[in-house]
Amino acid sequence: MLQGTNLQYANSFNIRIVIEAIRLYGPVSRGEVAKRTRLTAQTVTNITKKLMKGNLIVEGDRVQEGRGAPSILLSLNKDAAFSIGLDLDKDHLTGVLIDLDGNMRQRTVRNLKFPKSDEGMAMMEEIVNELLEKEGVAREKIWGVGVGLPGPMVISEGTILKSVVNPQFLPGWDNVPVVKMLQEKLELPVYLENNASAAAIGERWYGAGKHINNFFYIYIGAGLGGGLFINGQLHSGFTGNAGEIGYYPIDRNGIENGKDYKPHLGEYYNLALLYEKLEKEGIDIQSLDDLKNLYEAGNQTIIQWFELAAEQLLPVLLSIEYLIDPEVIFIGGRLPEIILVDLLEIISEKLPELRIAGKLGNPDIRKSTAGLDAGALGVATLPLYATFAPIPKFVMDQSVDKIRNFTKSKN
Predict the structure, then answer these.
(1) Structural domain includes residue 49
(2) Cβ contacts of residue 111 below 8 Å, gap of 6+?
(3) Is residue 383 part of a domain?
(4) How far is Cα 135 from Cα 93, in angstroms, rounded to an integer?
(5) Which of 41, 162, 262, 267 could bond to 192 as cystine, CB 3.0-4.6 Å?
(6) 191-244 pLDDT tens trace
(7) Contact of 33 with 17, CB cutoff 8 Å
(8) Element (H, E) at 107
(9) pLDDT for 373-406, tens place per residue?
(10) Domain contains 53
(11) Between vectors from CA 184 to CA 183 and to CA 186, what angle results, nearest 5°?
């Protein structure tokens, strides 16, 4: 539940909680905002005056909500600010531009194969400029750029802006100061997150997770990972890598992987490995449509990979159920729709057989609704998330006066 506070930083927190209520439930009246946030009507009135002065929200239609004068509905001013998301993995770079209300205004994709850091960084700068040119929006109205990279990552963090990344499975990116380099090139704030957590953020803000406070997101891409929301907030863990289910040990019937550690799920269940196997058969996958068509044609390599995935994901799902007790487990990422649907069908059929009899409160296992762009949308949200989310660590780092003045200066 959204709830205001009278503790330290109360003013900043309460403004954020009002913005969050308008984002989640808008168009919404001031009275409904007060009811959902448990703030007084006068407090909500004072806050919305400030937000309207800063051009962050706008008034709309009048509706009758009982006796008295009609209520005026409030919405976010979608054109007040914009944000950009860049989702990089071993096989693609997706860029999106969103407005303050979360609408995707522009999108572009580049297909890649294990890009080196200089290539990837140059392409990020190119895509940002392309998105701005397509939309015709001034750089001054961009609140920041979010970047998603494959985890796990070793991140140095001095403030909210994370500075150094070391993705272990993206060769040539060791200790590349992604944030520092992009900020210097773009002259915009840059935020960094692993793309599995970014996809979870995308599901929370734009998908079926919008009103679900506790869920786990399984991300299937060039690698395998996960993102976790607890009580409506992203849980990153001690090192920022919570949800890395790709390291879950698996039973390969005694077959060793030739390395100094036991086989883990991410070694056998990722799109990079699947593409590598198909390439050995002389099949070059250029798009997800290619993968979809091969699957529908009954390609045995894809089917075997798919069946292994379904089998090995079952114990992981059980572990998530018992350890976290989420309301929903979403499965999504860079898989064609038909493969995701078939995967969910097998899981829904076999998972109940592994649960103890009489287990209560089983989570729903659902297909992600944020789609293939969940990761890009998620990282595009990061600048807005840091600015507006009613989360204490953000509240203490950034005053609302700064937010409001920043917004006013961009119009």
Answers:
(1) yes
(2) 91, 92, 286, 287
(3) yes
(4) 19
(5) 162
(6) 988 888 989 988 998 888 988 999 999 998 878 899 999 998 899 888 788 899
(7) no
(8) strand 104-111
(9) 888 998 998 888 777 766 655 544 554 444 545 4
(10) yes
(11) 65
